[in-house]
Automatic annotation (TrEMBL):
Enzyme class (EC, first level): hydrolase
Domain of life: Eukaryota
PANTHER family: ENDO-CHITOSANASE
Catalytic activity: Endohydrolysis of beta-(1->4)-linkages between D-glucosamine residues in a partly acetylated chitosan
Gene Ontology BP term (one): polysaccharide catabolic process
Family: Belongs to the glycosyl hydrolase 75 family.
Chain segments annotated as transmembrane: none
Entry GO MF terms: chitosanase activity
Signal peptide: 1-18
Enzyme nomenclature, EC number: 3.2.1.132
Entry function: Chitosanase catalyzing the endo-type cleavage of chitosan, the deacylated form of chitin. Chitosanase may be crucial in the degradation of the deacetylated portion of chitin in the fungal cell wall.
This protein's UniProt keywords: Carbohydrate metabolism, Glycosidase, Hydrolase, Polysaccharide degradation, Secreted, Signal
Name this protein carries in UniProt: Endo-chitosanase
Amino acid sequence: MVARSAALATLLAVSASAWSVPSNLQTFYNNVKNGGCKSYAGGKSNLNDGQGHSGFGFCTDTANVVYLTGKNSLGDMDIDCDGASNCGGLSGDWQSGTSFDDILVSKKYGVKTLDASVHQFSVLGTCNLNLEGLISPLALVAVVCNNQLFYSVWGDTNGCDDNNFTGEASISLAQLCFPNEGLNGNKGHTAHDVLYLAFTGSDAVVGPSNANWKTKSASEFQNSLKAFGDSILTKKFGSTVPPSNPGNPGTGTCEWVGHCAGATCKTSDDCDGDLECKSGTCGGSSGGTTPPPATCSWVGHCAGATCKANDDCDGDLECKSGVCGGSSSGGSNPPATCSWAGHCAGASCKSDDDCSDELACKSGKCAA
């Protein structure tokens, strides 16, 4: 009876407003669920979902994000009860801490560990796949589930006892997503229809002042994430999208992020809308393959963005008077074009093959 009452209290505590899924994010969700991934973190595309199904991995083929995907499917949602509480004592697999507790303490978040019953967090990475080189600890993770959007943080990783399982979230996030499924520490959501979209870059980290970390209410924590979540989603993923026909930039938009004009492709099925795959690049159906000029590969760090140092600005832009601008004249327009979004000047790389056009990989960054 005590355990059942605790579980009911947890469920009642997580009632919060669900956020609407933006149209471009919904399109991305649909395409990922029905498509494939071109590049996996660590080259690992055969991770397990914990239900005996393999073929999952963390996809890196879209600029500014890392997401969990499988073969024409998305992730499921196992339940994480780790941290300050134990899902009302209903979890048989509980640990008293979460993966980034040292950061919570050293950066003065006001809590010593996350509380799965209060803090919405996603579990990313596995025993043999460390994602910290791609995603910063406590980074924002947008979660599309049950036709709605919620925000979470990257708060935990799967330990070696979980055999490289994927698709897991804190109990508070799971009950927000699926309030009518009776989820608890020993019962998760088994359908593969959840998009975990983690944002890259240090600016995507949910800091001490970006959420109400000290709250004891799951709904208050989710509500407190909304403003920061919306800003990062817009900055990193885009509230607007570039033209789909580079030969006629005044018409059409691109809704399939990562598959727009200039994206690499093998067939026309890899390209958004009416774009066609020509010479390995998505281009206009009339034959054009060159994307719109004057693009910026590091969203949120383009011309006009606020900055403290040159390292905060994309490509050759420099930080002048707290604003990213042109390197030579201090102007606001980045000069170069790039045909492979996410692999332009300033993008991280391991080899020259990771860089667009004539760019080379120098000191881990694509450069001329």
